[in-house]
Structure formats: C-alpha cells, structure tokens
Amino acid sequence: MTGANTNRKDPLVAAYFSVEFDGKVVGAFRECTGLGSESQVVEYRATDKNGKAVLIREPANMKYNDIVLKRGITNDMDMWQWRKEVEEGQIDKARRSGTITLHNQKGDPIARWTFRNAWPSKLNGPTYDAKSNEVAVEELTITHEGYERVQ
C-alpha cells in the first residue's frame, strides 16, 4: 500500500462525552445511556387483490427513551436540588433543555444530540459496601419530550 485510506472513518470511542443543561457543562459522568426512540407497532390483517391474506404493520405512537446518567458522587448537590424541584411540584422550573456531545480523542465535538423539556424523573444515591473498593455512584434518570441528533 502506498498511503492511508483518506475515506476511512474510524468509529468513535464512547468514553469521551460531555453533558450540558441550558448551556452549562454538568459534572463528569461516567456513563450515559438511553439515547433513542421507539414506535409502537399496529398490526392488522387484510387481503390483497387476489384474496390472499396479508399482514400489514404500521408505526403508531412514538416514545422517547429516558436518558440515564451515572457519575461518582461528590459534595456537589446539583442533581439533588434539581430533583427536589420536581418533588416540590415545581415542574415548570425543573424543565431544562440539554446536549450530549461525543468527542474524539483530541476533544473535538464529533456527534451531538439535543433534547428538550427534560426533568429528573428518578434519582438514586450510591450503594454502600464496606468490602468494596468501588467509587460511590449516583444515577439520574431524565425524562424529556424529544431529542435530535444535530451533528
């Protein structure tokens, strides 16, 4: 071979990502899951022009998956204060838009998803185990009204 393939696109490493809410970077998360959506499926049977039975499957209601973020617990109370807004019935105050960005190894943003009207529907504190050497992890589940890959 005489040179590198310039059309090659290597897959990105999942470890380099950042999370923002209302334009502010939030903590150092170790895991982010749930970017996705699904459509319910409606099935019905019909007959074609020859009288043969056919099964028709159509998309119905769409549902966005919840986003789950995990991070090592620190003395920062931001996620707990945000969840408290929901617990106190201040849902309009709690709603935030956000961005999840995947970076390459140089730190350049390569892929980006935005989501809107997000609020914390669940917050779990760490599990404690005196025999463990693991970092204590807190987990935030975010419910939102839609996302879009913008980059």
Automatic annotation (TrEMBL):
<dbReference type="GO" id="GO:0005198">
    <property type="term" value="F:structural molecule activity"/>
</dbReference>
<dbReference type="InterPro" id="IPR010667">
    <property type="entry name" value="Phage_T4_Gp19"/>
</dbReference>
<dbReference type="InterPro" id="IPR011747">
    <property type="entry name" value="CHP02241"/>
</dbReference>
<protein>
    <recommendedName>
        <fullName>Phage tail protein</fullName>
    </recommendedName>
</protein>
<dbReference type="Pfam" id="PF06841">
    <property type="entry name" value="Phage_T4_gp19"/>
</dbReference>
